Every structure is written in C-alpha cells, then in structure tokens.
C-alpha cells in the first residue's frame, strides 16, 4: 500500500513537472509565433550589427563606423552618454551609451538606432575582463525604405563614420624592431612632430610644386584605378645635412595626415624580413628610409660578386643585383628591395608613400631612384633669402617686417654668397634669455660674414696651390 502511494506520489510529481515543461515550451513557441506574426505584419524592419562577427576576433569595421557616426552626428538628442579618455589626449571622447534611442534623419526618412549589450547566461571564464559580453547596434526603419537604407544609408553611415575616425585618430610613428628581439615587427609612439609646409623653409616655387603633387596624389584614387597603377608614390629627398629633409618628411605626414614608418635598414637582415615589414604597414602611411646610401652599405656585407656595383664601388649596389635563389633568406639585396617596392606591397593596401633621404644622390643606383619608383626628386638646398624669411617668422614671430627690412638687404646679399644650411641659420635665430631678436640677427650676420671670409681664404689657398 505504502509503495503504491509512493509511486502514485512520484507519478503525480512527474506529471506536474511534465505539465510545467509543456507549458514553458508552449510559451516559447507562442512567443516565437507572436514574434513571427508581429514581424510579418509590422511595417518596420530591424537590422542588427554585432561588434564582433562570428569568425573574426577583430571589431567589425561597420560597428566601429556606426559608433563614430552616431557619436558625431546624432548625439544632440541623446541624454545617456559615456566618456572615455583615449591615450594621451586631454579631452575625453564622448559617445552615446547603451539603451539610448537615437533618431537619425536621412533624405526625409527617419531611422531609430539603439545600442545594447548581451551578457552570457552561463558563467564564462575569460582571460580579459569584459570580453564575455557582446555588444550590438540595432537600426529600425519603415520597410518602404529598405532599398534606400541598404543602398544609400548604410554606405553613407560607413563613409561618415570612417571620416570621423580618421579625423580623431592619433597618428603614429612606427620603428622596426631588430628581428627576433620582439614578436612585433614594428613599435609605435604617437607622432607629434609639428612641422608643416608653412614652417618649412625652402624655395616657394619648389614648395608649391610639392604641395600640388601631394594634393593630386591624395585625390588620385580614381585616377590610379583608371590607369591601373598602385596608389603609391615615391619621393627622393636629397641635399646637404641640416637642409630639412627629415623636417620635410614630417611636414608631408602632417599635410596628408598619414602615419610614418621609419624603416631602419641596418636592423633588417634579409629580403624576407624586408618584405614582411613592408606587408605589415597599413594604408595612409609613409615609409621612410633615411640616409639610404649609408644604411645599405652598412647592412650588406660586400661580396666578391664581380657584377656588383660599378667599378668605383660607389653605388650602394655593391650588393649583388641578380637574384640568387637563396638570397632572400641570407641577405638584403638591391633586387630584393626593388621587388618589395614594385611588387606585393604596392598591390596590398593603398595610399602609400615611400621616401628615401640621402646626402649623396650620386651614390645611389639609378635603378633605385628611377622615375616610377622615386616619382619626384626633391633637392633640399642651403638657406637663401626666401627660406630665411620663413625661418625668421618661425623663430621670431614678434618681429615685424619693418624691423627686419633694414637687415634684409645685408642678410639677403650674404645668403646669396654663402652656403649655410637652414639648421645653422635657425641656430642663430633662437631666442634665449640673454638674446633678443636684434642680437639674433647680429649673430647671424657675424656668422655669415665669417663664413664668407673662410670661403674667400679657402679659394685663395687653392689658387696659390694651383699656381705655385
Ligand atoms: N628647410 C628647413 N625648414 C625649417 N627648418 C629647418 C629646415 N632645415 C633644417 N631645419 C631645422 O634644422 C633641424 C635639422 O633639420 P633636418 O633634420 O630636417 O635636416 P636633414 O636635412 O634631415 O639633415 P640630415 O641630412 O643631417 O639628416 C630641424 O630640426 C629644423 O629645426
Ligand atoms: Mg635627416
């Protein structure tokens, strides 16, 4: 009897649990059905954009662009905002917080945006805190504008968002790590050089030609596409020390708003390493190889190869020109370098500039600097009158043209006769505690006169030796 009661009790308990499960399942089914029906009859459509796609570990570009777009263009009506301090900036970056409806208008139609976060239902242990949650953006709109949203609105958000990101992003200066010393090929710091074309002292006509060339390059996406060329450009900067080659690189980077990759060739062992470094660079960037003549000859051990370089051994291409099969892993060669510049790298990514600087253009192999590889050869020369005026305004902004006028005549004359680098001229124009503008100009005039005398004496000596 007791056992029958017990079984009866167990039986009714099981029946009760079964009834509960059936109800719950029915509820889920009913809920799904309601959702389906409301979706069918609702005139609104929703699109959800996850922060991370299922397979990739990188944040979705669309998600990031939407975040930037909404925070820049639709933030006005929002009341729930969040602020984050990004790296070394002094102003926080303010964006729209989760669960805040944002209304956007596009070509006379309305769209409703909403950000939300999902947390895992079960306990998940992750290495980094916060990586278990999943964020989404959801946009709702009337089904009548479905095509317009997909064809016009989403690309519009993507474009505007990208522009906001580009505007706010901090540009970086990358340097290559000695191979094998670090898992990353490049290390980076924030690029903070303040040089601009306004502060760059050089012949104004040359300066304008460079700016025009850069402008054309920047706007050249369609042109490069049409003529089937990779969207890249090479500049060779040559001239004596202290004439502003490195300053020009910074001015170009600031003008184009590009990152700079400062490639130290002496830390690169072979062609394979060089290729990896190039491929790891991102678009909208400048790769600069400073003093290319010196870094190559330091890097590459001279070989017994008779085909190497010219007979005087003056070209950097005392390194072998032909491509031996094993060269790629053994050494850095000119052909390897040319292959990288012309090949794979230029095909992947876009908007790249490559700059070589040198004090000795004549030491470079013509193959390396031929047009097409180095599209523009820019000579940075000694400081002449026009360049001096720029330097005077940079270093002595308080001085007016009237005050300068008396000195200009003398300085102009001297600068035509004496070769002094802008770096040396700038040294004299630096205001210090016990040196005012007047003293600066006087010290410059004295230095120029001394240089002129030295030049005259040197000439005299040469003549004497020659005649004697
Ligand atoms: N054309 C210039 N315009 C403005 N400033 C200049 C110019 N040339 C040189 N300077 C000043 O002199 C300093 C040295 O110039 P920079 O390093 O650009 O010369 P460089 O040509 O790269 O020299 P090097 O051949 O030794 O590398 C700069 O910090 C800058 O202040
Ligand atoms: Mg330099």
UniProtKB/TrEMBL annotation:
It catalyses: ATP + H2O = ADP + phosphate + H(+). Keywords: ATP-binding, Magnesium, Membrane, Nucleotide-binding, Transmembrane, Transmembrane helix. Its cofactor is Mg(2+). One of its GO terms (biological process) is response to stress. InterPro entries: AAA+_ATPase (IPR003593), AAA_N_dom (IPR025753), At3g28540-like_C (IPR058017), ATPase_AAA_core (IPR003959), ATPase_AAA_CS (IPR003960), Mitochondrial_chaperone_BCS1 (IPR050747), P-loop_NTPase (IPR027417). One of its GO terms (molecular function) is ATP hydrolysis activity. Residues 231-384 form the AAA+ ATPase domain. It comes from the Eukaryota. The chain crosses the membrane at residues 6-28. Gene3D superfamilies: 6.10.280.40, P-loop containing nucleotide triphosphate hydrolases. Belongs to the AAA ATPase family. BCS1 subfamily. This is AAA+ ATPase domain-containing protein. It comes from Oryza punctata. The lineage of its organism: Eukaryota, Viridiplantae, Streptophyta, Embryophyta, Tracheophyta.
């Amino acid at each position: 009897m007791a056992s029958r009661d017990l079984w009866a009790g167990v039986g009714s308990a099981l029946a009760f649990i079964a009834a509960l499960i059936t109800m719950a399942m029915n509820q889920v089914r009913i809920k799904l059905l309601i959702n389906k029906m409301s979706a069918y009859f609702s005139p609104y459509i929703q699109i959800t954009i996850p922060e991370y796609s299922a397979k990739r570990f990188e944040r979705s570009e669309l998600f990031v662009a939407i975040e930037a777009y909404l925070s820049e263009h639709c933030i006005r009506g929002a009341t729930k905002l969040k602020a984050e301090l990004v790296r070394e900036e002094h102003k926080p970056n303010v964006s729209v917080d989760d669960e805040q409806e944002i209304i956007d208008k596009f070509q006379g139609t309305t769209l409703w945006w909403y950000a939300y976060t999902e947390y895992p239902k079960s306990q998940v242990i992750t290495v980094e805190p916060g990586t278990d949650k999943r964020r989404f953006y959801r946009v709702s709109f009337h089904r009548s504008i479905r095509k317009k949203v997909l064809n016009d609105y989403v690309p519009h958000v993507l474009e505007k968002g990208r522009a906001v990101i580009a505007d706010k992003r901090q540009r970086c200066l990358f340097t290559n790590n000695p191979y094998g010393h670090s898992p990353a090929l490049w290390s980076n710091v924030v690029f903070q050089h303040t040089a601009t074309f306004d502060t760059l002292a050089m012949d104004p006509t040359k300066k304008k030609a460079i700016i025009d060339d850069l402008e054309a390059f920047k706007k050249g996406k369609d042109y490069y596409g049409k003529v089937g060329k990779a969207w890249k450009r090479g500049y060779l900067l040559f001239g004596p020390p202290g004439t502003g080659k490195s300053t020009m690189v910074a001015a170009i980077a600031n003008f184009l708003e590009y990152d700079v990759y400062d490639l130290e060739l002496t830390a690169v062992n072979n062609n394979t390493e060089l290729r990896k470094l190039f491929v790891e660079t991102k678009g909208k960037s400048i790769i600069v190889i400073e003093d290319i003549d010196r870094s190559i000859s330091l890097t590459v051990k001279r070989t017994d190869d008779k085909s190497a370089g010219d007979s005087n051994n003056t070209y950097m291409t005392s390194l072998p020109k032909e491509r031996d099969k094993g060269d790629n892993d053994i050494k850095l060669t000119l052909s390897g370098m040319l292959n990288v510049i012309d090949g794979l790298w230029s095909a992947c990514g876009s908007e790249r500039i490559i700059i070589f600087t040198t004090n000795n253009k004549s030491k470079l192999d013509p193959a390396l600097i031929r047009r097409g590889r180095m599209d523009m050869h820019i000579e940075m020369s000694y400081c002449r009158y026009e360049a001096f005026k720029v330097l005077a305004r940079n270093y002595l902004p308080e001085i007016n043209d009237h005050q300068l006028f008396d000195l200009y005549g003398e300085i102009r004359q001297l600068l035509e006769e004496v070769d002094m680098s802008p770096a040396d001229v700038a040294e004299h124009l630096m205001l210090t505690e016990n040196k005012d503008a007047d003293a600066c100009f006087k010290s410059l005039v004295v230095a120029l006169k001394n240089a002129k005398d030295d030049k005259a004496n040197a000439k005299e000596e040469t003549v004497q030796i020659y005649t004697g």
